[in-house]
Amino acid sequence: MEYINISVANQFSKTPGPRLIKEGEFSGELFFNTILDQAFSEALQSGKKIKVDLDGTAGYGTSFLEQTFGGLARKYSAKKVLELIEIKSDEEDYLKKDINEYINAENDVQI
Amino acid sequence: MNILTPKTMFKFSKISILAIGLSFGFVTGLYLMGFIFTNFDNVQLQFDVLGPFSLLITIFVAFYVTDKLNKSNEKTRIEKNLIIDDLKNFKIDLLKNIKFLCGKDEIKFIEVTSRLKSLRMRINSIIKLINVYDFCGDSVCSQIDKIIRDINDIFTDKVGTIVDGRITLDDINREKINILVSNVEIKIFEIIVDINRK
Lengths: 111, 198
Description:
The complex is a heterodimer. Chain A has a 3-stranded parallel sheet with strand order 1-2-3. By secondary structure, chain A is an alpha/beta fold. Chain A has one domain. Chain A contains 5 helices and 3 strands; from the N terminus they run βααβααβα. In chain A, helix 2 (28-46) packs parallel to helix 3, helix 3 (62-76) packs across helix 4 and helix 3 (62-76) crosses helix 5. Chain B is mostly helical. Chain B has 2 domains: 6-74; 77-197, no CATH class. In chain B, the strands form 2 sheets. A 3-stranded antiparallel sheet of chain B has the order 3-5-4. Chain B is rod-shaped, with a radius of gyration of 29 Å. The A-B interface holds A 15-19, 23-25, 58-64, 66, 91-94, 98 and B 109-110, 112-118, 120-121, 124, 145, 149, 152-153, 155-157, 162-166.
């Protein structure tokens, strides 16, 4: 399986911000609009999967992660997101569980 | 004040086991040596050669059991003490960080997320160690992680006023955070008790 690799720290910011663009810099909304949504559309067309690397940042607000991954599930369905997205987080492995919750909150799909 | 710490409790149990063992040995010895109390004025004495051996064996068993109990209880004591120290230090740092963040009228978003990342990573490392040694049930441990996430949630998503990457905390949310921190303290206490009981 081929992957589209996204590193939040390298491609977006080492200091991810709040939920919405109007709340401050490097928001979840901005990450969704400029990087993740485009990558997801590409993955859908090409049959690739997306690997999102969360390591290397100063830390995430729950709002950033919910806006990003919950937002993706709201747009494309939780089932599709769970199929195509893979999370890498060696520093904070518990974030995978958190993100699964945000995705599943949009749908009762279980991994 | 005389406080019963695990160490003193163990000493106490050691002495108790020894005393019970000796008493049991003494009574068994008396019985085997043939002391038969017919009444207080008339005591018949019969000598049994096996009696002294029995007494010695009883004393040996008392010491052996005490020694075995001691060793099995102390086998993981170093690990227990290190984890308990980690939990206590984590509690101190959590209180210090939350006091700092809640004490400000306006906090930088990044300041909150970086401090909470550090705290959550730390408690998760401690939880992993607790699970490796099976010192405590997983549910209490995972509750602490959940509470730290809830604190992050209040700071970064529930305050309602985040402008230009700066969080303004109101009194209601400040109070909610303090309640969550108290819950963490209670969970830490429960875990320490569980670890000492193992």
